[in-house]
């Protein structure tokens, strides 16, 4: 049964994942067990195949949707402290920048790895980032910048989040985008940097 | 019927070779890329030197333009998001010029259009506003109409405005290529005399078989009324697609360019 669900996730069969998840619950399987050993194990293989160049973006998007269908089914049966998601991430492209292909790929990979991702869109101001951190209380806030001039917005945003007292113990700040380097990330006081979407998922898995 | 204007995209700071050449001021690389593109049929040479050197960018732009103008009189597309860099480029060049690019973002629209008017430059105009890129062709058209109006206010001739429908990757959403093609059609229908241009290779990002996707997409855009294309002119297959489509759309009287391309061996790919 778990193997079937995992395969359906890998094939991006939304309807099938949904139906199989229902069946699995009817059979009396533990929802948390279904989550970890069926849905998640399926999506992990998807992530690996994307990293290996075996699967392409649209396929991964289908698989992520299939995963979501399963999670939506399980959600009502999970106990409060059994959040179906590994962690919560707020993500957005910084002010004056509308490039979002990279950010969306990161979102896709994180979703496909079982994280809950709240997408703030593009041209997100420091105040909006801070507001989202306050409102959603995420584990990680992720920022994307694609233009050398908007990399400075990234620095401003981090500064602002810190002066608002939101960068306390548990919140991690993650940055990325083509012109952003690990060195730059350190200089502006980010906690984490990832070169691409796959790396982002790997790094978060290490710390969360 | 005019041929499609080819804007050669190879001098771009996001390519590793160019980045290195800009940082090390390697003149040969820049000159060679200009010559190669002109020989391959480029009508414009795009000049983008943004490699993250901040305050040096204006200087680098002038440096690159001087080198390119040593080897060709082909028009230039000065490519920068930075107003100072753009102005430095416009001031330095002798060749005919196009500003790449203006958009409807508040901090960019008026100052960039002012520059176009001041330097009598053509412009590539993008339907981007502060909230981002609207997906729907109707909304993109609306932004273009606003830009056209602002251009008219400055006496910039409409045929100097090259509107870019914005080409986003097909792999992310199959609506993206359709939206670009529809936007071209709507632009040609709605704004009399307007020109259009598009960055072709974006469409195939993240998918296998990129060359064929680029070629077929270009053909569909040309059929929709594309006047200019930003692409790699040394990509022989893509250039063959351009020439073949031109002759099929009656843009190449007596098949002259097509036959010339055949004799040069440029059609067998
Ligand atoms: C596609 C594109 C566009 C599209 C954007 C469409 C969209 N919806 O995003 C359009 C046509 C709209 C566009 C517009 C503009 N663009 Co543009 N664009 C590009 C281009 C060609 C590709 C960027 C891209 O999407 N790459 C693919 C994605 C998947 O890669 P990525 O973004 O790097 O993301 C990966 C990693 O960086 C990382 N990552 C990204 N974000 C994050 C976030 C986190 C948290 C993490 C961990 C990781 C991470 O993971 C991603 C996936 O692996 C680049 C050139 C290039 N080759 O980079 C120029 C480029 C970024 N653009 C540029 C410019 C200047 C502009 C414009 C100002 C127009 C102009 N030329 O005048 C406008 C911008 C308007 C604005 N205010 O933002 C310049 C920036 C130059 C500079 N000074 O830095 C570039 C470098 C081109 C150039 N050489 O001039 N652009």
Task: Please characterize this protein's 3D structure.
The complex is a heterodimer of chains A (208) and B (269). Chain A has 208 residues and is an alpha/beta fold. Chain A is 55% helix and 11% strand. Chain A has helices at 2-10, 14-26, 31-51, 57-74, 101-112, 126-136, 151-163, 182-187, 197-207, and strands spanning 88-93, 116-119, 140-144, 172-176, 192-193. A 5-stranded parallel β-sheet of chain A has the order 2-1-3-4-5, with helices on both faces. By secondary structure, chain B is of the alpha/beta class. Chain B has 2 domains: 1-83; 96-209, TIM Barrel, CATH 3.20.20.20. Helices cover 47% and strands 13% of the residues of chain B. An 8-stranded parallel β-barrel of chain B has the order 1-2-3-4-5-6-7-8, surrounded by 6 helices. The radius of gyration of chain B is 18 Å and the shape is globular. The two termini of chain B are 27 Å apart. Chains A and B meet through helix 4 of A and loops of B. Bound molecules: cobalamin. Cobalamin sits between chains A (96-103, 105-106, 142-144, 146-148, 174-179, 194, 196-197, 200) and B (12-14, 48, 50, 79, 81, 100-101, 103, 105, 128, 133, 166, 168, 202).
Side-by-side strand order of the widest sheet of chain B: 1-2-3-4-5-6-7-8
The CATH architecture term of the largest domain in chain A is: 3-Layer(aba) Sandwich
Order of helices and strands of chain B: EHHEHEHEHEHEHEHEHH
> Would you tell me the structural class of the helices and strands of chain B?
alpha/beta
Ligands, ions, cofactors: cobalamin
Oligomer: heterodimer
CATH C-level name of the largest domain in chain B: Alpha Beta
In total, how many domains does the architecture of chain B comprise?
Answer: 2
Summarize model confidence as the mean pLDDT of chain B.
95
Low-pLDDT runs of 5+ residues of chain A are: none
Structural class of chain A: alpha/beta
Proportion of helical residues of chain A = 40-55%
> Which spans of chain B of ≥5 residues are poorly predicted at pLDDT below 50?
none
With helices defined by DSSP (H or I, 4 residues minimum), what is the helix count of chain B?
A: 10
């Amino acid at each position: 049964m778990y193997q079937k669900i995992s395969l359906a996730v890998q094939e991006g069969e939304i309807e099938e994942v949904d139906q199989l998840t229902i069946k699995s619950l009817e059979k009396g399987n533990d929802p948390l067990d279904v989550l970890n050993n069926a849905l998640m194990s399926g999506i992990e293989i998807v992530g690996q195949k994307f990293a290996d160049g075996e699967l392409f973006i649209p396929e991964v998007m289908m698989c992520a949707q299939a995963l979501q269908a399963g999670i939506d089914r399980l959600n009502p049966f999970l106990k409060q402290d059994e959040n179906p998601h590994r962690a919560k991430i707020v993500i957005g492209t910084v002010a004056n920048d509308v490039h979002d292909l990279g950010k969306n790929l990161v979102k896709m990979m994180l979703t496909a790895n079982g994280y809950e991702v709240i997408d703030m869109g593009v041209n997100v101001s420091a105040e909006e980032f801070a507001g989202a951190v306050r409102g959603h209380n995420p584990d990680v806030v992720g920022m994307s910048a694609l233009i050398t001039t908007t990399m400075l917005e990234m620095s401003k945003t981090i500064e602002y989040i810190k002066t608002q007292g939101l960068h306390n113990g548990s919140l991690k700040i993650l940055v990325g985008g083509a012109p952003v380097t690990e060195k730059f990330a350190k200089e502006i006081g980010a906690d984490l940097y990832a070169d691409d979407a796959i790396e982002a998922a790997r790094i978060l898995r290490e710390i969360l | 019927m005019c041929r499609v204007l080819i804007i050669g995209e190879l001098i771009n700071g996001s390519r590793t070779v160019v980045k290195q050449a800009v940082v090390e001021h390697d003149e040969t690389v820049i000159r060679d890329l200009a010559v190669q593109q002109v020989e391959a049929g480029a009508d414009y040479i795009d000049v983008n030197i943004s490699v993250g050197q901040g305050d040096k960018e204006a200087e680098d732009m002038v440096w690159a333009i001087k080198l390119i103008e040593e080897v060709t009189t082909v028009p230039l597309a000065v490519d920068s998001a930075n107003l100072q860099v753009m102005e430095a480029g416009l001031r330095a060049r002798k060749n005919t010029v196009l500003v790449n690019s203006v958009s409807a973002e508040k901090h960019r629209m008026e100052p960039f259009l002012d520059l176009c008017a001041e330097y009598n430059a053509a412009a590539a105009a993008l339907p981007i506003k502060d909230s981002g890129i609207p997906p729907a062709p109707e909304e993109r058209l609306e932004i273009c109409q606003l830009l056209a109006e602002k251009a008219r206010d400055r006496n910039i001739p409409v045929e100097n405005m090259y509107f870019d429908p914005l080409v986003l990757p097909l792999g992310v959403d199959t609506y993206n290529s359709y939206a670009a093609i529809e936007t071209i059609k709507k632009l040609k229908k709605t704004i009399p005399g307007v020109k259009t241009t598009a960055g072709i290779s974006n469409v195939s990002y993240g998918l296998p078989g990129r060359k064929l996707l680029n070629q077929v997409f270009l053909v569909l855009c040309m059929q929709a009324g594309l006047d200019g294309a930003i692409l790699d002119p040394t990509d022989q297959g893509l250039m063959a697609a351009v020439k073949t489509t031109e002759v099929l759309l009656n843009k190449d009287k007596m098949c002259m360019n097509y036959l010339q391309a055949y004799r040069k061996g440029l059609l067998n790919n």
